[in-house]
Write a structure and sequence with these properties.
five-stranded mixed beta sheet
């Protein structure tokens, strides 16, 4: 195996933190090897004035890294798991799903008020249709404002746009050391996270068995089972940034529990269900829950949501 291993990553502050975490873990395991980071910008980093759902999400934050991987410019690509499309290029695979941080969302409120205490018509910033739909289901009076940019930019927009609050993933806030900004961990019964939220994915060339062995110690079986189920559900629903779908898998007492939610853009329609089964059946569990949600009306809700968003 080569002595210098190149780790590719987006060059945002959070992405670099995640890639450095992987580098430090690998360096500790293999002190004789040299690991270097290569940061790059993706299409999603360049387009900051358009909602994610408007520009599509197929590899929005990953494609450039995947091209570099296929071309041999890098040996590993480190991603936020939730950024990875549910279908990967044929010659690539997820070599490791790292131990998951708390997967939920957090509220950062200027007044220190929680979701239930915010005033009528409160202005809430988010870039996610998933969060928007679930928030409006909980509080139809909220005025949801679309904000884009990296984590630091969105924290700044809280003040610049005179918002009452913004919603972000806990993992990013925690990893960059902003825990003191958190007003509330949003309960899962109000807002389920995105598939894979809170975990770091390491993508490799499918044929690179030596790299697979190298990163195997960073793979967490419980996180992998939960996230495989979540991604299978999303794949079956054809979900992504354009559709309001939330899902959460958790391993409890040796069983995999999976919950999913699909909501209309205005939050008025919502279907939600959970099922459980053995962790080694994760993909099957995800697909089964997706089918049950479709039988409950998720298909019609998603079709309507896509049409509505295309008309906006």
């Amino acid at each position: 195996m080569k002595e210098e291993i190149v780790i590719g990553t987006r060059d945002s502050q959070l992405a670099m933190w995640q890639a450095r975490w992987v580098l430090e873990k690998l360096q500790g395991l293999y002190p004789q090897k040299k690991f270097v980071l290569k940061g790059m910008k993706t299409r999603g980093d360049h387009i900051l004035d358009v909602a994610l759902a408007k520009i599509g999400d197929k590899g929005l934050f990953t494609k450039e890294l995947e091209v570099a991987l296929l071309n041999g410019e890098i040996d590993l690509a480190v991603h936020s798991m939730k950024d990875l499309p549910t279908s990967l290029p044929e010659d690539l695979t997820i070599g490791a799903i790292c131990p998951r941080e708390f997967p939920g969302d957090v509220l950062i409120s200027r007044s220190g008020l929680t979701l239930d205490k915010l005033p009528p018509g409160a202005r809430i910033g988010t870039s996610s249709l998933r969060r928007t739909a679930q928030l409006l289901h909980y509080r139809p009076d909220f005025n949801v404002i679309t904000i884009r940019g990296n984590l630091t930019t969105r924290l700044r927009k809280l003040e610049e746009l005179n918002l009452d609050a913004i919603i972000l993933a806990y993992a990013g806030i925690h990893r960059l050391g902003h825990d003191e900004r958190i007003t509330q961990l949003i309960p899962f019964d109000i807002c389920l996270p995105a598939a894979g939220q809170g975990s770091i994915a390491i993508e490799i060339r499918a044929s690179d068995s030596s790299m697979q062995e190298l990163i195997r110690p960073l793979d967490d079986p419980s996180s992998r089972a939960a996230i495989i189920a979540e991604r299978a559900l999303m794949r079956k629903l054809e979900g992504g940034c354009q559709v309001p779908v939330g899902t959460l898998g958790q391993i409890q007492q040796g069983q995999l529990f999976l919950e999913g939610v699909v909501a209309s853009l205005d939050g008025r329609q919502l279907v939600r269900k959970n099922i459980s089964g053995p962790p080694d059946q994760a993909e099957k569990i995800g697909e089964e829950l997706a089918m049950q949600l479709i039988e409950m009306g998720a298909g019609e809700i998603l079709n309507k949501a896509r049409q509505e968003f295309d008309l906006q």
